[in-house]
Amino acid sequence: MNVAVLSGGVGGARFLRGLVAVVDPGNVSIVGNVADDIELLGLHVSPDLDSVLYTLTGRSDEEKGWGRADESWHALETVSELGGEDWFRLGDRDLGLHLVRTELLRAGAPLSEATGTIARAFGLEAQLLPATDDPLRTLLETPAGTFPFQTWFVARGHRDEVDAVHYAGAPEAAPAPGVLEALRDADVILIAPSTPYVSIGPILAVAEIRAALEARTVPCVAVSPLVGGRAVKGPADRMLERLAGGTTPAHVASCYLGLIDALVLDVADAPAELPHGIRPVVTHTLMTDLDAARQLAAAALDAAGAPA
Ligand code: FO1
Predict the structure, then answer these.
(1) Which of 92, 98, 202, 215 has the most beta carbons within 10 angstroms of its beta carbon?
(2) How is the chain split into domains, by residue range?
(3) How far does the centroid of ligand 1 lie from the alpha carbon of residue 217, in Å?
């Protein structure tokens, strides 16, 4: 059974770790968000792809959910001493990956090729695909101004309320090689429990990816990132409140109209009435450990009529 998953960073990575425990990782294709990528200290950083890569290859910092386990920060200390940009914390081990990725990109490789090279070297069994090789960036319009994603999220601690989200570059962005094939060959398509506006939204802003989902002939199931109307971590609840008008499962589903057949939601959010015939599937969605993530992935596959 082939499974294609649209995924953001931390929450998506945790879900994917459960998924590859219940289906053959070789049959899993991950379409990852790249709209919060950032150029920093001359390096190209792809936080969401890296969170997935580190998590699935056992290298991630479990507590933070991003960056490497057993990390040290000597390079960043030097950056600070020299008055360089140190607000976005790049650890020594993490920096090694950014050096290699940036070198590959400078030599002319598209991001998808660089990602494939790095993923193979790290022993990733699933296929990790950036949604696009083209420049695609999330911009947050707030009362304090319009900010690139990491400026809003990290530098400003996502304190500013968001009035609108823009995906710069989306009209010109084409799916990266392999993305449409993965969606076409999938028996099931899943949308990971990532923030709809800033993690999944940019992937769906690539017109050919959205069209592929609209034209799907196989089930597509999304997993809500909310538990009891609250985000487990991050700004998903505040964004849904402000941009969709609330944080019920119906508000989450409204982000995926025409794209999903079922929404997996937490017991704390049940019962739920969903629009457009989207089927609610109620389970425990909090991924406290690997077993919980495995059960959530199994529930999503079950909801798609494709039990693991
Ligand atoms: N998140 C933070 O809150 N602060 C950081 O300094 C930070 C650095 C960082 C470095 C590499 C990386 O891959 C991720 C990093 N993140 C950091 C997480 C990142 O901002 C978010 O996880 C995603 O972009 C949101 O999905």
Answers:
(1) 202
(2) 3-58+125-134+167-303
(3) 35
Ligand 1 atom with the shortest distance to the CA of 234:
25
Name the burial class of residue 251, with classes exposed (0-12), middle (13-18) and buried (19+) by CB atoms within 10 angstroms of its CB. buried
Place of tokens 């997935």: 52
Question: How would DSSP label each residue in 219-266?
Answer: -EEEE-SEETTEESSSSHHHHHHHHTS--SHHHHHHTTTTT-SEEEEE
pLDDT at 307: 84
Distance CA(230)–CA(226), nearest Å, equals 5
- Ligand 1 atom closest to Cα of residue 88: 6
3-58+125-134+167-303, what's its fold? Rossmann fold (3.40.50)
Q: Please give the model's pTM, rounded to 2 decimal places.
A: 0.97
Position 308 confidence tier, pLDDT thresholds 50, 70, 90: confident
Give, using CA atoms, the residue closest to atom 18 of ligand 1.
Answer: 66
Q: Which residues line ligand 1 (CB under 6 A)?
A: 8-10, 36, 45, 47-48, 50-51, 66-67, 88-90, 94, 150, 153-154, 199
pLDDT of residue 306: 87
**Any idea what DSSP says for residue 203?**
H
